[in-house]
Structure formats: C-alpha cells, structure tokens
Amino acid sequence: MKPLFKILCAMTLLLVSLAGMAQKSNWEKNFPGGINFYSVSDAGIFIVGTNDALYGINPEDGKEIWKLPEFKKITEEAFNPIPFSPLAAIVDRGMMVQHAVINTVTGQVVCNTKDLGFSTVNKRFANAKLGAVLFSGMNKKGKACLMLVDAATGEKRFEVERVFDKNTEVICSEVYAINKDLFLISTTKAIYCIDARTGEEKWRSEMKTDPPVVQPDAKDSKNPFAAFGKGMNKIQAKMAVAVSSKFFQVTDPSRVYFFNNDYFTCYDWATGKEVWQRQELSSPLNNYILDDRGIIVTTNQRSENYGKQGGLMGKALGGGNKAKMYMFDYATGKQLLQDEIDVAGNVIGYNYDNSGKRIVIA
Predict the structure, then answer these.
(1) I need a surface site. Which of 61, 82, 98, 305 has the fewest CB within 10 A?
(2) How far apart are CA 118 and CA 330, in angstroms?
(3) How many beta carbons lie within 10 A of that of residue 308, not counting itself?
(4) What's the CA gap between 261 and 64, in Å, rounded?
(5) Do 58 and 67 touch, CB atoms closer than 8 A?
(6) What digits encode the pLDDT tens for the residues 332-353?
(7) Is the pLDDT of residue 170 over 50?
(8) How many Cα atoms occupy the beta-carbon half-sphere of 247 within 13 Å?
(9) Mean pLDDT in residue range 104-109
(10) What does the alpha-carbon distance between residue 219 and residue 228 come to, in Å, rounded to a whole number?
(11) Residue 8 burial (CB < 10 Å; 0-12/13-18/19+)?
(12) DSSP of 128-158
C-alpha cells in the first residue's frame, strides 16, 4: 500500500488575496499518492497534482471538490492556468502533444484535443468575448486544422481544414473578438477576419509577421536536456500561447489597430481596408502609449542578428539600429513628430515641456 502523504495549509495571506478570506485557515488533508505540485487557480481553487489524480480542493476547509484520475502523474509544467478565467489547460504527452481544458471550479473536462480529432496542436487561445477556445494544429488525416470549441460545453462551433494557404503558416496573435460573431487573427503571412460561427474567411490582408519565439527560462538555458521530459511540456505550453503581434481598439468602434515587430497600422474591421498608410518601424516594438495627441510608440534597439529573434517585445541585444520613439495620428497614422526620436533604454514615462510641443522622456 502506498504511504499517505500529507499537506498542511496555513495560507492566511494567500487565501486573503485569492479567496477573499479574512481569517486564518488551517487544515490537513491526506492523499493516496505522492504530491507532485500544488497551486491556487484564478478562481481560488486549490489544485493538487498527485501520482493518483488531479484534485480540486476547497481552500477554506480542505474538502475535496473534484478528482480527475485521468490526469494522474502530470507535472507542474503540464498544468497551465488560462488567465482571468476558471479554466486551465493540461499540455502533456511528448511529441504528439495533447491539450485538455478543464474547469477548475467544477472539475469538468471541457475538451481534449485527442478526442476532438487532433494528432498534434501548435496553438491554443481562449477568448472571453467568444466564450470559446481556438485550436490550431494537424488532424488525424494529416491536414492543417482550425477549430473553435465552446468553453462551457466543449462542443465544436466549427472545424475547417482550409483557411491558410500552407501548412507552415503559424498564428502569431491572440484571438481578437470584434463581437460574438467575428474575430481576427494574425499569421506569419496575413491578417484574417473569420466568422466565429462557421470558420468562413470574411477577408484577409497580406501582412508578414515573424513567428513567435520562446526564450528558455534562465535555469533551463544551461540544461542540455531541457527540451525533454518536463522541459518539453513547458516549451510546448509556452509555444501554444506565444505571440509576436497584437490587435487593439480605442474609441472608434469601426477601427482596429495592429502591430508586429516591423509595422504599425489600422484597419476598418468590417471591410478589411487598411485606413492608415502602413508605418514601418525601424526596430522591434517595445511599448505603446495611448496619449490624447496620438499613439506614442517606442522600439527596442535592433541587433544585427534580428530575424533570428522574435517575440512581441523584441530583444535589445546591442548593436544594429537604435531604439526610436514615434507618435502616430489616430485617424491617419501620420507621424506627428518632426523626426522620430532616438532613445536609450526603455521609455517608462513621459511629459510635455512648458510649450506643450515637445515630449520629455523619462
């Protein structure tokens, strides 16, 4: 018989911040398998992964809320909470990666990509406005597949095999929902507007974007075996949600702004018409600030090795082009500064001088 393992919780500060408790909480619970990890979900449920199951525990009294034996022996690297939601993704099983999405409040297994017909998954993005999770990968027929799954029921809203022109096209942005029926995604080749009910392409705009690159953790970068075992789960989980571009809206509901490491622009989302003259950035974007006068954009210094690096915030590796600061007009994209400004380091604050015409950088 396996020895019983005990976990003793005296988590006053943690439970006050995550579960709204105002008093000290102490409890003890026995598990029949060795404990591999434990954490608190965004919904305030205490998650414990053991050799016999994955558990959801009430953090107030230590009582078991749910138990999922099918997820026994999973590692901490395989368990990935989906931010600002009760959901979590379990990314596991080596080269033929599977994604299971669970509700950490109820213990419901919302979906499993193996059961949905995927042989492997390369991207997974949840979206609250759609109430759904988008998966991209290869199906069991060996064809590229895009699938939208209801986050409450696990039912397929659509499944399409032909959206991208090539199987090598990779999603580079999170899902951006215009409304409950339409969403945008960016890939290494184009921007797509997709019908959330059918998967039908409404429009596309050619826009090349560098694929996202995941940098290893500092402790893994020196480990030659980091890409195996637990390390593989961690890398696969990071790659599934890594991005190198972004959409956002401001006050005009008819417009959506977009940027990647090379360009900043704006679209009429209903037609796909690019309403700005596309602005090319001299180096990868570091930050943008929505000022009353325009969009202030700052970039990182671009290294001579740029093109071998990626990621939404770029890399300031030294050498190459200098970091710059721009200001773009919301309506036209016109550069409002007489010349872009060379900056050293990252811009963390700014103000105007007494004339109100010049920006003082901090």
Answers:
(1) 61
(2) 42
(3) 10
(4) 47
(5) no
(6) 999 998 776 777 666 666 677 7
(7) yes
(8) 21
(9) 97
(10) 14
(11) exposed
(12) TTTTEEEEEEEETTS-EEEEEEETTT--EEE
